[in-house]
Amino acid sequence: MNINLPWDLSVVPEKFFLFRDAALLTLEITTLGILTGLVLGLIVALGKLSQHQFTSKLASAYIFVIRGTPLLLQLFIIYYGLTSIVTIPPFPSAIIALGVHNGAYIGEIFRGAIQSIHYGQMEAARSLGMTHRKAMRRIILPQAFKRAVPPLGNQFIIALKDSSLASTIAVPELLLRGRQMGSSTFMYMEMLIIVALWYLIMTSLLTYGVHRLEQRLKVSDHD
Description:
Helix content is about 75%, strand content about 0%. Helix 8 runs antiparallel to helix 9.
């Protein structure tokens, strides 16, 4: 049975590498956003586990607000809503929004990983004369990081796909590039297929990298 598709798929390999710069920008936004989220997430996790009520409640409030509102709204607040106070260009706005958004989720990942470490290890470290901070840095956090790798990997993949929202504030990443190419060539489906292929390649490579890291960490546990 012959199926005549209304799209010219021959342009997909032809124009595929015209999206390279946009793909690199997407990776840059994702990487910087994730690094920001990792720092915020660790601070939030430690804050939520803090014995100080104010610090714990502040961290909980941050997680509640960020997880309870969509990333697109947070992006618009940073880019449009803060203009009366400060004007932030599109690219750093996307990074800040992605970092703040992921920080809440990563904070919960770190908190769960830290709490999964048996409390006896902290007590043993304290009995050896370590301060609480030193025990966290040398004993608890390294083990917690290993346990956090799988959910962190999933969060990184989500962040990569979420970076497409930067197109709404004119950051020239993959999705915006696809829309622009589609409007100029009237080949919307073909351009969107190219965008999808780039995302599939990047998420596949990231998934593979996370899997390899998991395997290495498992091997180190048995050494």
